Amino acid sequence: MSKNNLYHLFEQQFTGHSGKTAFSTPAGNEFTYQQVMDISSRIANLLVSKGGKPGDRVAVQVDKTVEAVLLYLGCLKAGLVYLPLNTAYKSSEVDYFLSDATPIFLVCAPEKHTDLADIATAAGVKEIFTLDSKGCGSLMDASSSQSEEFQTIPRKSDDLAAILYTSGTTGRSKGAMLTHENLASNAQTLVKYWAFEENDVLLHALPIFHVHGLFVALHCAFLKANKVIFLDKFDPAAVMENLPEATVFMGVPTFYVRLLDNHEFGKEHCQNMRLFTAGSAPLLEETFNQFTDLTGHVILERYGMSEAGMITSNPYDGKRIAGSVGFPLDNEVRIADEDGNILTDGEIGILEIKGPNVFKGYWKMPEKTASEFRPDGFFITGDMTVKGEDGYYRIVGRSKDLIISGGYNVYPKEIESYLDEMEGVLESAVVGRPDPDFGEAVVAFIVKDGSTDLGDVDVIRFAKDKLANFKAPKEVHFLDELPRNTMGKVQKNELRNIAAK
């Protein structure tokens, strides 16, 4: 039945509030929920007319616009699998995603069409559409003549709705397969847990190519047919201007740091607000306390990941504790050692989770999928966690050397694999160091081979040419050799100590 399609949940709300404003932008553009349904239907009709069938992938690398969201909704309606890509990814990175996911369509910014055309053709992409930062392009041109009537394609609950690529510890990114049930169950849980009502107004300043901005924020708004004030990016001045009209704001820690750094920001901007949330990276206790002291609002910190959406949350009604991620949501959680032995409260171990929000597995990686799940179905998150005497969970570290910079996951191995190819580099190692703005900054350690006169500017420039800017090192150190233990393993703790000085 079509009601197993995630879009059906949204449609129930949209049809009952068709005349209500769905999106408003600083440029003065407004979309009603009737327009959301009409335009997404046109896009769905276009993609189906071009040969799109249920289960086909649609890769999307475009700037943040309302039309990009409507493309996502159109894909859901048509039973297509949405594949969002970070706008910072370079063509060499996109090449891998297209080759791996083999999408039928690619939607990209007009200025990237030339660079991506050959790559897309080689990956078997049937057609490329464009969509620019103003919501214009061949996608909207071609869909404008399509019918506004479209019967939502029936989907089973375990059919794929989206694939989100996460950086891999071996350098190869993994496509997390998210089903209609995964996304629907998590959205319904959050709407209830965070007390969303029809009169809420969401101020949206997040990117829409990952879980936080696309699924967590927008799905909550859609399930209550809320008005969304849609900023094309985070800008402190724009946030302060629009906060008085909003009731909910979701951000990464960097957003709150930059608001607090603005001397004009204060309690008067937050009079109408009922909820500030933070996630995608750890929120410093200092930031938590400063925000409460200045505004009177206590930020609600939660924890999630691409593979499961939101997993735990501080309470909406109840004490929110700095440094904690609260309590489990609609999923089972446990803490275990590396061998899967369950630990007692107060012991630090790896968080394992099970529930309707947990993803189906990694795209075309059955062995990797099997290794990440226990025999009883619990997914091994890799995040080092402890449950305190107060019952609150705290993420105390991460396995696999993950760095979170500006809310984005960065895996050192991926960066190292590129740096090791650079002329003049014998070997490299990458770690994260604390950063007051980004949470963590990427730091590279290089051992030269003596063939060239290599400098830190050269290394950073090389990385930016090959990788998204947020993955590029902010700082480079040159060493005669990397510190290793008796087994030859690089001692990254020593490198982190050097980076922190």
What does this structure look like?
- This protein is of the alpha/beta class and 501 residues long.
- The protein has three domains: 2-180, ANL, N-terminal domain (Rossmann fold, 3-Layer(aba) Sandwich); 234-398, ANL, N-terminal domain (Rossmann fold), CATH 3.40.50.12780; 403-500, GMP Synthetase, Chain A, domain 3 (2-Layer Sandwich).
- 31% of the residues lie in helices and 25% in strands.
- It has 15 helices and 25 strands.
- It has helices spanning 6-16, 33-49, 66-77, 91-101, 113-122, 138-143, 180-193, 211-223, 236-242, 253-261, 285-295, 366-372, 412-419, 456-466, 492-500; strands at residues 21-24, 30-32, 57-61, 81-84, 105-108, 127-130, 160-166, 174-179, 201-204, 227-230, 248-251, 275-278, 300-305, 309-313, 327-328, 332-336, 349-354, 361-362, 379-387, 393-398, 403-405, 408-410, 425-435, 439-448, 475-478.
- The strands form six sheets. The protein has a nine-stranded mixed sheet with strand order 2-1-10-9-11-12-13-14-15. A four-stranded parallel sheet has the order 4-3-5-6, sandwiched between helices. The chain has a four-stranded antiparallel sheet with strand order 16-17-19-20, with no helix packed on it.
- Helix 5 (113-122) links the parallel strand 5 (105-108) and strand 6 (127-130).
- Helix 2 (33-49) crosses helix 3 (66-77), helix 7 packs across helix 8 (211-223) and helix 10 (253-261) crosses helix 11 (285-295).
- The longest helix is centred in the N-terminal third of the chain and has 17 residues, at 33-49.
- 46% of the residues are buried.
